[in-house]
Amino acid sequence: MKTKILSTTKSDIAKAASIIREGGLVAFPTETVYGLGADALNADAVASVYAAKGRPSDNPMIVHIARASDMGRLTPMLSADIVALIENFWPGPLTMVVKKKPEVPDRTTGGLDTVAVRMPDSRAALDLITMADTPIAAPSANISGSPSPTRAKDVIADMDGRIDAIIEGEDCRVGIESTVVDMTGDVPTILRPGIITAENLEAALGKEVKYDEALLESGKFFALDPEDGAADIDDFKPKSPGMKYKHYAPKAQMTIIEGQRDKVKSEIERVKMLNERLGLKVGVILFEEKAFIEAAHDFFARLRDLDNEGVDLILAGALSDTDGVGFAVMNRMLKSAGYNIAKV
Ligand code: TXA
Ligand code: MG
Predict the structure, then answer these.
(1) Per-residue pLDDT at 247 exceeds 80
(2) Helix axes 152-159, 292-308, angle to 10 degrees
(3) What is the pLDDT of residues 301-330, one digit of tens each?
(4) What digits encode the pLDDT tens for the residues 83-125?
(5) Ligand 1 pocket check for 75: Cβ under 6 Å
(6) Average pLDDT over the chain, rounded to whole?
(7) How confident is the model at residue 56 (pLDDT cuts 50, 70, 90)?
(8) Which architecture, in CATH terms, is 253-343?
(9) Distance 135 CA to ligand 1 centre (A)
(10) Hey, what CATH topology would domain 4-235 get?
(11) Whether the Cβ atoms of residue 239 and residue 97 lie closer than 8 Å to each other
(12) pLDDT number for residue 235
């Protein structure tokens, strides 16, 4: 398939919108990561997204809208909490899981009776949704399993020849995917951490917001000796199907080094030299202490750059943060490394 490379001009976005309306696939920029969009209400179009990504078809997608009033097309009921989060965080990197209307195809939601919705904070994305005049289902625009794309060139590397068009926009401002919060229970529950934290949501709602157990489970990996064998991803019983897959993995072997900062630095140096002496190519990801926003912005791009340089091994310094933006980046780092973590 010949993939059209489009710009963010109104006339190019109009072309992209007509592709969506006709059931085609368009990759587009958002503030978090690039999305691979299809008409969310067209089951066949949505099915072709799964095929282009090579993703297991039980993994539900996020539906993107451009106006809060479009919520009415997707869900039968808006609680006061949902309205408060819309007012505080949309457009922005927050996805809400809500009850779905029957009009939303099972293909889009992976057969669940809920739908995940967000309004992206990106002019190109909002124009695309508005001109297509339909909600757009969009997972991240990467081949399933590889790092999420935060730059147009990353999308082209994965998707050229597999989809109808790619809108080339700016690099993504946030760099990790949206926070996903389940609004269907008594206590709002974060299923995927992002730059909007539980604390941010609590401040807006004036009530408790939890992280899902499975996320905290993954946090426990810090406390475990890797030899315990407890770092077994199959032990997860996640609510959000996206949690259980090995994700974002670079081609290189990847290990996270966790511990006190000076020790982490010297362990990374030690392992790097050891491996380089034996002819291996080693890449290092070590962010400034507490520079979590920057880490979020750079993490996926670094993984892709290191793969492009052909490194054999990536050594990454763990970020120490239990509930904020650093925790959200660690969630991705752990999945990228297949929960391969060494304590020093
Ligand atoms: O920032 C983002 O959210 C990006 C951009 C493109 O908007 N999109 C994205 O989509 O990350 P994706 O498909 O890669 O991740 C969707 C996540 C998965 O973890 C999935 O399991 C969860 O949202 N999800 C979707 N619908 C759900 C539902 N009804 N209930 C629970 N989790 C759901
Ligand atoms: Mg993804």
Answers:
(1) no
(2) 40
(3) 999 999 999 999 999 999 999 889 999 999
(4) 999 999 999 999 999 999 999 999 999 999 999 999 999 999 9
(5) no
(6) 91
(7) low
(8) 3-Layer(aba) Sandwich (3.40)
(9) 15
(10) DHBP synthase (3.90.870)
(11) no
(12) 41
Confirm or reject: Cβ of 137 under 6 Å from ligand 1.
Answer: no
Q: State whether the beta carbon of 146 lies less than 6 angstroms from ligand 1.
A: no
- CATH 3.90.870.10 boundaries in the chain: 4-235
Is the C-beta atom of 62 inside 6 A of ligand 1?
A: yes
Residue from 140, 163, 184, 239 whose mutation best tests the ligand 1 pocket (most atoms within 8 A of CB): 140
CA distance 230 to 188: 28
Residue from 258, 248, 218, 221 nearest 332 by CA: 248
Say which range, 20-24, 174-178, 223-227, has the weakest mean pLDDT. 223-227
Q: How far is CA 91 from CA 68, 119, 150, 305, 312, in A?
A: 9, 5, 18, 30, 39
Strands of the sheet with 210-211, listed across from one edge: 4-6, 165-167, 26-28, 35-39, 136-137, 62-64, 114-118, 94-99, 179-182, 189-192, 210-211
From-to residues of CATH 3.40.50.11030 in the chain: 253-343
260-297 pLDDT, tens digit each: 999 999 999 999 999 999 999 999 999 999 999 999 99
